[in-house]
Amino acid sequence: MGDPVLVDLLTWLHIFSVVGWFGAALVFMMVIEPALPKLSPQTNGELVLKVFPRFVRFVEIFASLALIFGISLALALSNGDLRLFGLGSMSGLYVTIGASFGLATYLLVFLLLGPSVMALGRLVVQMKQNPQQPPPPQFQSVQERLKFGAPTAVLLLSLAMAFMVAAAGTGL
Ligand code: HEM
Fold it and tell me: Ligand 1 pocket: which of 1, 7, 14 to mutate (most atoms <8 Å of CB)?
């Protein structure tokens, strides 16, 4: 194992970033998303336009930090020799599986969830400009992508966390 102070610091930073990322995903799935259909169109529009872009940026920053500090922690634990995280050891296997779930969620955030939220914002602006017209067809599909994406992210992050905790339990 590398410098214990550096390992402790990176573990703290990694877990802090994970808390921000995972916490945001849970709050979105359990609090924000179910409340959206109950809000007035006015409030809905304000939320999508003024809060969601900030929310997406928050998730993207914390997700990136979680990955950066996770990789730095792996480097610090192994003194730069990532072969120690090879699939031959239990700990290496668990970290690799956990990191793969983390990476899959990261791609989901950047390729599906973030763009969907931004698209929703653009559609809401369009709908506000043409209030007499019915919602465009993309409106439904973007909402469905968000409905599928948020619980998938929570499931993948739960699996990532389970494997990470198991890895720490087995020791490098
Ligand atoms: C590229 C992605 C990631 C990498 C490279 C990574 C790497 C690591 C490493 C090397 C450890 C230390 C394991 C040990 O002590 O043997 C760790 C711990 C941990 N990771 Fe990750 N991680 C990643 C993503 C994630 C994600 C997505 C989550 C949660 C959703 C997560 C949650 C944790 C937790 C909670 C610990 C502390 C476990 C404990 O001390 O009990 N990690 N991570």
Answer: 14
CB of residue 160 inside a 6 A radius of ligand 1 = yes
**Atom 8 of ligand 1, nearest CA residue:** 70
Cβ of 70 closer than 6 Å to ligand 1, yes or no, is yes
Exposed/middle/buried for residue 6 (C-beta within 10 Å: 0-12, 13-18, 19+): middle
Residues 16, 33: Cα–Cα separation, whole Å: 24
The residue segments making up the domain with residue 160 are 4-170
List % helix, strand, coil for the chain (3-state, nearest 5). 85, 0, 15
Please tell me whether the overall predicted TM-score, pTM, comes out greater than 0.85 for this model. yes
pLDDT digits (tens, 9 = 90+) for 107-127: 999 999 999 988 988 888 888
Question: Per the structure, how many domains does the chain have?
Answer: 1
Contact (CB, 8 A) for 39 and 47: yes
Q: Which residues contact 128 (CB under 8 A, 6 or more apart)?
A: 45
| CATH code for the domain in which residue 41 is found | 1.20.120
- Show the beta-strand stretches assigned E in the chain: none
